[in-house]
Amino acid sequence: FLVEDTRGIIKEAAKKTCFICYKTGASITCCQTGCDRTFHLPCAPDGQCVTQYFGAYRSFCWEHSPQQALQPRPSQDNTCTICLDTVEDKVSYKTMGCPACQDARFHRQCIQRLALHAGIGFRCPCCLNQEPFMMEMLIMGIRLSKRLPSWESGQEVGPPDQRHGHCDATTCLCPGGREHTEAEGPWQLWLCSSCTAEGTHQHCSSLGNSTYSWECNTC
């Protein structure tokens, strides 16, 4: 049943076109009622789309993505609190801020990197607030990790292809073996969203195209 169900999802996704790259196989649809925009998960950043990695795992296109309601930055300092490079003078998809202190500004890529490094210790890099900062970051599509901070565990967070490259499912069903991976489809390799130390082929763990993240049994 699961195999047939997966085939049905893949067949249906094959008919849909990504509004960002214009290629078929788009399995994610904006959850806004009445919006039929579909896209590939890897294309989401280019299209300024947001996927919330908690609760119902909702996804939004650029038009319907959640927006931060922040006051003008008190310090008028247009630098990223994390990398110290210039940021936009207003909040946007690429430039985010802390809802607690209202002063911290950072690039989306910088805060995502910090979230994966900090793990359970993730908080505002400026005022050190953890709530409501963490909740706001989740709503804005920042993926959090349940691991210990990298500076305590000694584990480095890097690009997926440098961290792990094989399927750890109890029974790997891939004809090409555990180390065979593809960009999309049943043999796409998913890494654990918490520890990134284990992986699985989409088909080997019966993950549908509507699944946006996966956690290993350990996490």
Automatic annotation (TrEMBL):
Record GO cellular component, one term: nucleus
PROSITE patterns: EPHD, ZF_RING_2
Every RING-type domain range: 80-127
UniProt-recorded Gene Ontology molecular function terms: ligase activity; zinc ion binding
Domain PHD-type span(s) in chain numbering: 1-65
Keyword Cytoplasm applies: no
Organism placement in taxonomy: Eukaryota, Metazoa, Chordata, Craniata, Vertebrata
Keyword vocabulary terms for this entry: Ligase, Metal-binding, Zinc, Zinc-finger
Protein name: G2E3 ligase
InterPro entries: EPHD (IPR034732), PHD-type_Zinc_Finger (IPR051188), PHD_PHF7/G2E3-like (IPR059102), Znf_FYVE_PHD (IPR011011), Znf_RING (IPR001841), Znf_RING/FYVE/PHD (IPR013083)
Pfam annotation, one family: zf-HC5HC2H
Signal peptide: none
